Amino acid sequence: MKALITGASSGIGLEMAKYLSSLNYDLILVSRDKGKLKDIQKCMETTTEIYAFDLSIIDNCFKLYNEVKDKKIDIIINNAGYGIFGDYRENNLSNELNMIDLNIKCVHILTKLFVNNKSTKYILNVSSSAGLMRGGPLMSGYYATKSYVCSYTFALYEELRKNNSKIHVSLLCPGPVSTNFNNRANVNFSINSLDAKYVAKYAIDKMFKNKLLIIPGYTMKFSIFFARFIPIKVLLKITYKIQKKKK
C-alpha cells in the first residue's frame, strides 16, 4: 500500500504522512523544502520516498507524475497550497497568480492524471471551509481558489459514481488549523484553531469510509450550515469583520 502527499513538509500534510505510515502505508512525500523532507524521511515507520518540487510551477506537476506514475500508488492527497491576506488593491499580482497555480492548477492537473491511473483508489483534495463560503474579503483570491477545489471535487465525485469507478474522491474543508499556513498568509485567527494531528487523522479515517465532504470540528460544521441562510451582503460584512481581526 502506498500514498502520495503534496505539501508534506509541515502541518496537515506532515501529520497525514505520520498517520498513514502508522497504518503501514509506504509514502511518497512532495514539498519544495528538500531539507525538511530528508529529516521527515528518517522518522517515518515505513518506506518513504521524497521529491522536492515547487508545484506552483506547472511543468513540475507533470514531472512529478511521470516520476511516480508506475509506482502503484493507492492514495493521492492534494494538500499543497497557501493563502494571501490583505487589501485586494495592494496584494502583489505575481504572488496571487502563483497561489492560483498551486491551489487550483496543481490540484486540477494531479487529480486529472491520477484519476486515470489504474492503481488509484482514493483521491483526497484538501480545500478549506473558505471554499464553502460565498467570498472572503481580505482573502478574496484564496477563498476563490478553494471554492474552485470544492466545485471541481464535488462534480468529479458524481461523475465517478455514475461510471461505477473504483476510485473514491473526498474533499477536506477544515476551518482554522495550527499550521505554517498562518505564518505564510501573515494572519492570526480570532477563533481557536484545531490541532493538525487531529484534522489529519479525522480526514484519513473519513476518507476510508468513503465520505465525500469532510469538515472537522462541530463549530465549523454549524458555521457553514447556518451561513447558507444569511443574505450574501450580510454574510460579506460579517466575513470582512472576522477577516480584519486576523491582522
What does this structure look like?
The protein is an alpha/beta fold and 247 residues long. The chain has one domain: Rossmann fold. It is built from nine helices and seven strands. Strands 3-2-1-4-5-6-7 form a seven-stranded parallel beta sheet, sandwiched between helices. The longest helix is centred in the middle third of the chain and has 23 residues. The radius of gyration is 17 Å and the shape is globular.
Entry keywords:
alpha/beta; 247 residues; seven-stranded parallel sheet; Rossmann fold; single chain; 7 strands
CATH architecture: 3-Layer(aba) Sandwich
**What would you call the structural class?**
alpha/beta
| Top CATH class | Alpha Beta
Written as H for each helix and E for each strand, in order along the chain, the element string is EHEHEHEHEHEHHEHH
Low-pLDDT parts are none
Percent in helix: 40-55%
The total of helices stands at: 9
Largest sheet: 7 strands, parallel
Widest β-sheet, arrangement of strands: 3-2-1-4-5-6-7
Q: What general outline do the C-alpha atoms trace?
A: globular
Which percent range describes the beta-strand content? 5-15%
**Radius of gyration (Å):** 17 Å
Separation of the first and last Cα atoms: 43 Å
User: In the CATH hierarchy, what is the superfamily?
Assistant: NAD(P)-binding Rossmann-like Domain
Number of strands: 7
Write the CATH fold name. Answer: Rossmann fold
Number of spatially distinct domains = 1
> What assembly state would you assign to the polypeptide chains in this entry?
single chain
Mean of residue pLDDT? 93
